[in-house]
Amino acid sequence: MELRQLRYFLGVAAAGSFGRAASQLHIAQPALSRQIKALEEEFGVELLFRTARGVHVTEAGERFRGLAEALVRSIENMRLEVANLADEPSGLVVVGLPPSIAHLITIHLIEACEIRFPKVTLHIIEALSVFLVDGLELGRIDVAVLTDPRESYAVERRDLADEDMVLVGVPARVQDGLASVTLEELNNYKIIISQGFERVMQPWCEAANVTPSYALKLDSVQIVQDMMRRGLYCTIVPYGMVHSDVAAGRVNAVRFNPPITRRLVLAFSSRRPISLSMSAVFEMLEEQVNAIQTKIQTR
Asked: Are 132 and 125 in contact (CB under 8 A)?
């Protein structure tokens, strides 16, 4: 397998046609077909299938495309970093963030990168942790912050922080001055919860032999928060998501007794070396996560 074959495959997959790809890649179409055929024979699978309407990527081809994109990007970044070794980090870094973290740090992360590492380009992908792990395994994501990490032999992790989970609502729903709440008391509140945060709460509830009766469950963290702020429901979220609302007096947040936390981890592929630009992004991600108010303020 040669690097040019990877570029040829990616070109055909993107163009959806051998003819268009051959023109864009400046190679004769028969030669391009031979290179793709050689790739398929080497791996023993069909990567592309031809139809009257063009070329489509097979299931094996989709997985191969993710790995090929990561490899080509790594080589391009390698060239940039070696050329600028005495200068500064450079190249593209793809960062994965879960929705509950993305809105808190994305803008600050991009601003910090532009100031400190202007030759580094960030591509932010927002997705649930389970999909971010898939992206790391396929090489489509370089580094991610995970909140619900599953075990993966291809992904390494570094602990970042533990966040307090809190019951939160407008004062009419969660009274002023309440010091704490137990899991057993949750059914006294009308609670809307995202399915992701329900998963965070589940092992704690099972350990306490408590089954909360949630009024409503949704996939969207943003909609859950909007409905809580309108006073329709209480909800359960990490404290960092509502710190500004609490500080402004718009809502009350109450810790659990005993405390309930979720862990944030920095994750990256164990299959590839850590580049200079990735190290720079690691540093900025750690700083931005540490800047989040993860612990509820002592009353």
From this structure: yes
